[in-house]
Amino acid sequence: MACSISHSTLTGPRDLHVSTHKRVQKQHDEIEKQYREEWNELKTKYQKLKDPIYRKHYSVLTKKDESTVPSDGSAQVLVDGSEEPHKRAGMIERHDEPVLAYLEDIQSEWFDDKKQSSFRLIFKFSENPYFEPSTIVKSYILEQPDDGKDEVLSSTDCTELV
């Protein structure tokens, strides 16, 4: 049987102790909230700095800018990872490779830029014999538990393939 003591029933030093603890915890919570907001702003800042690099990668991988396509085939290495299979171990199987040959781009976006919690990944494929539609969206819904710990995955959703 759990013991529960109402703050209103405490008197004297115990009441002062509980009140002080609540005040200190509130200060901590405010700092934690400020930290999370500033951390999200910092992530957003650097994401914006990386976006042009990602667009350049996309251009190279899809050969949209012929002047940037390496002549040694290293663009294909980026797609299939064949030079460093240990880095992709368990993530991409050999049977995935024919399908991934049609992958043109992967983008990510937050549902809320300020909170930067739940997000979606957008996979863009060229027309292919494996599935439709050519754009697949995978959404990840995260929730903040009551205990204040890191967010947890609560659900996912994905484009239905035909």
UniProtKB/TrEMBL annotation:
Belongs to the nucleosome assembly protein (NAP) family. This is Uncharacterized protein. One of its GO terms (cellular component) is nucleus. SUPFAM superfamilies: NAP-like. GO terms for biological process: nucleosome assembly. PANTHER family: TESTIS-SPECIFIC Y-ENCODED PROTEIN. Pfam families: NAP. Residues 83-92 have a biased composition (Basic and acidic residues). Residues 1-11 have a biased composition (Polar residues). Gene3D superfamilies: 1.20.5.1500, Nucleosome assembly protein. InterPro entries: NAP-like_sf, NAP_family. Residues 1-25, 65-92 are annotated as: Disordered.
